[in-house]
Amino acid sequence: MTKGGLTINHMTYTQKEKELLTSIERYKKHQSALNSSKNKPNMILRIELELYIENIATYLRIDYKKERHPTHTVYHFCIEERELQVKVLYRYGTFYTRHQAIIPD
Q1: Closest CA to 21 of 56, 73, 58, 65
Q2: How far, in Å, CA of 93 to CA of 59, rounded?
Q3: Cα dist from 53 to 13, 39, 63, whole Å
Q4: In contact, 35 and 41? CB cutoff 8 Å
Q5: Helix, strand, coil % (nearest 5) of the chain?
Q6: N or C, which end of the chain has less CB nearby within 10 Å?
């Protein structure tokens, strides 16, 4: 199922996972509204989004590892003894396009 750009596999998320994923969605909506109010294109820069994700993880006290690639970044969050992967995709390596949340088997 997809909800506002977030791909949700049929998993039950912990409270912290929900907080993290909801925060990312909230940030996207806020940036979209801000850009719209300033008559700017609806674009989120890679550096801004990654900084936000890392700050929110620190705020929620979630440990993570980051794998940065030219067109995407994968975050491995360790939450309550399981891993949540968030893969963020970018157009031209700079502009956010979408993200996926995955809990590996």
Answers
A1: 56
A2: 27
A3: 18, 25, 12
A4: yes
A5: 35, 35, 30
A6: C
Please give the Cα distance from 78 to 81 (Å, whole number). Answer: 6
Q: What is the pLDDT of residues 45-100, one digit of tens each?
A: 999 999 999 999 999 999 999 999 999 999 999 998 899 999 999 999 899 999 99
Contacts (Cβ under 8 Å, ≥6 apart) of 9 = 101, 102, 103
- Coil, helix or strand for 85? strand
Cα 1 to the chain's mean position, in Å? 16
Instruction: Please state the length of the chain.
Output: 105
**Amino acid present at 97:** T
Q: How many CB atoms lie within 10 A of CB 24?
A: 22
Q: Hey, what are 52's tokens? A: 């936000």
Residue 1 has pLDDT above 60, yes or no: no
Segment holding 56, helix H or strand E: helix 46-59
